[in-house]
Write a structure and sequence with these properties.
single chain; two-stranded parallel ribbon; eight-stranded parallel beta barrel; magnesium; 46% helix; Xylose_isom_bac; binds D-xylulose; alpha/beta; binds cobalt (II) ion
């Protein structure tokens, strides 16, 4: 251990004032029949943690890192070592990466693949030494200028082919490193103006691309779960994978729904005008909840700020959905979160991850009690009880149509409603958060 000032972050309980200790995350503690680590399946995002430097559209990087000044493969290897050390210090069992996070791009596509192969040897060794696993792999098809008009939705077929080569390679890497999932986030899969865009062809091509990925995974025996990560905008004005409902409609149209689930990111949900809770719920009720990118946005800013998640209200509701889903595996909670530009010291990474992990641990504790006590279920069940008997049951059982319902309504036209008790339920939710 050489990069961080402590060997491990330990659980000290809610009373602890030690900034380098967990107050709520007690990895091996059993909650609702499962260890906390198995409910949460925390993962480190390689890009925000090791590759990012704190630059923004107005200024250069600010992060001070021990690998500053290194270049090429030497830099790549140093970052990998630091990343695995960080995960060990935090007791984190998984990580996620894009191809070009771990290895620099070369002059040619073949050079890029050669660099990647060399780094995959290194990552494989680090995985074996530490027992840390790959939650998901993905391919970056948005940063380089070649993706200016899109990746699988580019107007240029050579770009489509280039992307196919990249994803083919990364599926092989994913298989070799035992990735449990494979993510597609369509960073440039969208448009700036419909004046020059054939949206119908672009969507057909996107579906063709996904089909080829599914076929190739079968061919090489990669059995990880495919995931699509919705986001409504940024970098393009309109992204095709706008939100969970849009992705569901797309998957169903092209008969891809049996192969894909979703990776729901909190900040993407809010950019789409939804809550994180809404997106998770939409996936759960459609059997499409695959994994989570844990972070949060800023209420006052309209872009993807990717902050470490500290909002316990959101983490409680997220874990509530995860528990109701029967768990998140083979997905997990990947911290797609980055430090603020002003948090440039290496140890800020520890503070960021501790904040996020403790926040979700606290959310899990509250959510587990909510589920166990059926604290919200009771109200929901009662609210819909008119569908368990009488005319409501006939509707659910498909026994009546408009004619029967019209006859019924004529005899029952003095409607009586009951309160939804929203404020009471919000108080109950708060009580569970305070007392868990
Ligand atoms: C971008 C984003 C990506 C994906 C992986 O907003 O969330 O980092 O998670 O490409
Ligand atoms: Co993400």
């Amino acid at each position: 251990m050489s990069y961080f000032k402590v060997d491990s972050i330990k659980f000290e309980g809610p009373q602890s004032k030690n900034p380098l200790a967990f107050k709520h995350y007690n990895k091996e503690e059993v909650i609702a029949g499962k260890k906390m680590k198995d409910h949460l399946r925390f993962a480190m995002s390689y890009w925000h943690t090791l590759t990012a430097n704190g630059s923004d559209p107005f200024g250069v990087g600010t992060y001070v890192r021990p690998w500053d000044g290194l270049e090429g493969m030497e830099l790549a290897k140093e970052r990998a070592k630091a990343g695995f050390e960080l995960m060990q210090v935090l007791g984190m069992d998984y990580y996620c990466f894009h191809d070009i996070d771990v290895a620099p791009e070369g002059e040619t596509l073949q050079d890029t693949f050669d660099n990647l192969d060399e780094m995959v040897d290194c990552l494989e060794k680090l995985q074996k030494e530490t027992g840390i696993k790959l939650l998901w792999a993905t391919s970056n098809m948005f940063s380089h200028p070649r993706f200016v008009h899109g990746a699988a939705t580019s107007c240029n077929a050579d770009v489509f082919a280039y992307c196919a080569a990249k994803v083919k390679k990364m599926l092989e890497v994913a298989k070799r490193l035992g990735a449990e999932n494979y993510v597609f986030w369509g960073g440039r899969e969208g448009y700036e103006t419909l004046l020059n865009t054939d949206m119908g062809l672009e969507l057909d091509n996107l579906a063709r691309f996904f089909k080829m990925a599914v076929d190739y995974a079968k061919e090489i025996g990669f059995t990880g779960q495919f995931l699509i990560e919705p986001k409504p905008k940024e970098p393009t004005k309109h992204q095709y994978d706008f939100d969970a409902a849009t992705v569901l409609a797309f998957l169903r149209k092209y008969d891809l729904d049996k192969y894909f689930k979703m990776n729901i990111e909190a900040n993407h949900a809010t950019l789409a005008g939804h809550t994180f809770h809404h997106e998770l719920n939409t996936c759960r009720i459609n059997d499409a909840l695959g994994s989570i990118d844990a972070n949060q946005g800023d209420m006052l800013l309209g872009w993807d700020t990717d902050q470490f998640p500290t909002n316990v209200y959101d983490s409680t509701l997220a874990m509530y959905e995860v528990l109701k889903n029967g768990g998140i595996a083979p997905g997990g909670l990947n911290f797609d979160s980055k430090l603020r530009r002003g948090s440039f010291e290496l140890d800020d990474l520890l503070y960021g991850y501790i904040a996020g992990m403790d926040n979700f641990a606290k959310g899990l504790r509250a959510a587990a009690k909510l589920v166990e006590d059926k604290a919200l279920d009771e109200y929901v069940e009662k609210r819909y009880r008119s569908y368990s008997e009488g005319i409501g049951k006939d509707i659910v059982d498909g026994k009546v149509g408009f004619a029967e319902l019209s006859e019924y309504a004529l005899g029952h036209d003095q409607i009586v409603n009951e309160s939804g008790h929203q404020e009471l339920l919000e108080t109950i939710l708060n009580d569970y958060i305070y007392n868990s």
